[in-house]
Amino acid sequence: MSLLKQIPKLLPKLPDFYVDDIIKRALEEDINYIDVTSDLLLSPDNRTKAVIKSKADGILSGLEIAARVFSFDSWGSRIASVTVTPFIQDGEKLEVGTIICEISGSTCAILKAERTALNFLQHMSGIATYTRRCVDAISGTNARIVDTRKTLPGLRSLQKYAVLCGGGNNHRFNLSAAAMLKDNHIDAYGSITVAVQALRERAGHMIPVEVEVRDLEQLREAISAGANIILLDNMNADTMRQAVEITQRRAVLEASGNITLENIRETAETGIDIISLGALTHSVKAFDMSLVICNKESKCIN
After folding, report:
1. Is the dihedral of CA 186, 266, 259, 89 positive or negative?
2. Given 93, 182, 249, 285, which residue is catalytic?
């Protein structure tokens, strides 16, 4: 049995002020000061409907972010010229042809926001989809799928939210959330034991301590030093099984390094508690979807 209690997960609502800052930067980058196609071609009074369609099977994430993109004008001010009606929610399954949402309002505003909205939606849904594949691959074990800090600068909260949409869990959000002694910290300070002791004295009782270990000898030292979590770095399945036996639930065990969909099940079956994967965020494939303008009969044209 894992040391971690399995409880139902609710998707958090990301703060509007945080999301809006990201959206404004993205729109400024894409539009600059004018869309020379839409602004010069279309009247501000021109209105239309469009839908966003899934072109693959997977998990949705980022719909609220994408919807907020359509509510800004070129200068980052809130406007009400576009309405987004969702037909599916974050965390739900997508199939080829699924209509994710309908968008109605200013044609110019829709076309200006299209790429930025899809960039968020495709990237976040890609993370959620790959996360769900990993979660499904270890179904029935006591292990949990967890992300890392290997995120794109400025997008960490969005990426970690997408991991939750896929059924995964979050590791620490930043360096302030927990103390984690990696190999370089240990090499720089001298040893696991003295480093853990120093952190215990200086960090206080509210800060958990995780220690990265490279072999079973370091594992024993980390246990003796009182580490709360121990990261088994790049260990094979046989060594991880030994680590589980040695630890006897005295610490939470995390496996990381060279873990893929091909070996993730074997890793989970060793009895470890956590499997952390940088690949969830740093190299995920964008999910395939598109925005399609509809004609007067509300039939979307290809």
Report:
1. negative
2. 182
**CA–CA distance, 27 with 224 (Å, rounded to integer):** 52
pLDDT over 80 at 302, yes or no: no
- The more confident residue out of 46 and 33 is 46
* 92 in catalytic set: no
pLDDT of 4 higher than 70: no
Mean pLDDT, range 258-268, rounded to an integer: 95
Considering 28, 233, 269, 288, which one is annotated as catalytic?
233
Give the pLDDT of residue 15: 84
Active site residue 233: yes
Residue 302's alpha-carbon distances to 62, 84, 103, 107, 110, in angstroms, are 24, 20, 16, 17, 17
Q: Catalytic: which of 35, 90, 210, 212?
A: 212
90 is catalytic: no
What is the rounded CA–CA span in Å between residue 176 and residue 254?
A: 19
Identified catalytic residue from 47, 133, 150, 265: 150
What tens digit of pLDDT does each residue of 230-250 get? Answer: 999 999 999 999 999 999 999
The conformation of residue 169, written as its DSSP 8-state character, comes to: B
What gap in Å lies between CA 76 and CA 55, rounded to an integer? 30
**Quick check: is 212 catalytic?**
yes
The helix/strand/coil state of 16 is helix
Q: Establish whether 5 is a catalytic residue.
A: no
Q: For all residues of the chain together, what is the average pLDDT?
A: 90
